[in-house]
Amino acid sequence: MDPLDRITESSLKFAQASRKAWANGDDEICNEMLSTHVNFLIDELMGFIPKETRKCKVCHCTELHPCPEGCYWVGAELCSSCA
Q1: Which of 18, 21, 70, 79 has the largest CB neighbor count within 10 A?
Q2: Residue 70 buriedness (CB in 10 A; 0-12 / 13-18 / 19+)
Q3: Per residue in 67-80, pLDDT tens?
């Protein structure tokens, strides 16, 4: 199943179950369900964060965290600032 489909399905199930628990006055269960659902969402959404694949062997900048003055890749492990 696609991650967005899992998130959508889980959110719908959470909404239905939490409405029932809320209507019954089960605050503790609501809090526990919310915590579980938030942790699930965090785990699922982490998959959308790009993974850094390159790192400069000299200054250790990356594609997501380049040198302050800006840089580009001149080699597999070397940025233009360090070349």
Answers
A1: 79
A2: exposed
A3: 999 999 999 899 99
User: What contacts 50, CB < 8 A, 6 or more positions away?
Assistant: 63, 64
| CA gap 36, 14 in Å, rounded | 10
- Report H helices in 1-76: 3-23, 27-46
Length of the chain: 83
pLDDT over 90 at 66, yes or no: yes
Handedness of CA 34, 37, 43, 47 (dihedral sign): negative
- Give per-residue pLDDT as tens, 18-63: 888 889 898 888 888 888 988 888 888 877 777 667 899 999 999 8
Task: Give exposure, 1-18, as e/b (b: 16+ Cβ within 10 Å).
Answer: eeeeeebeeeeeebeeeb
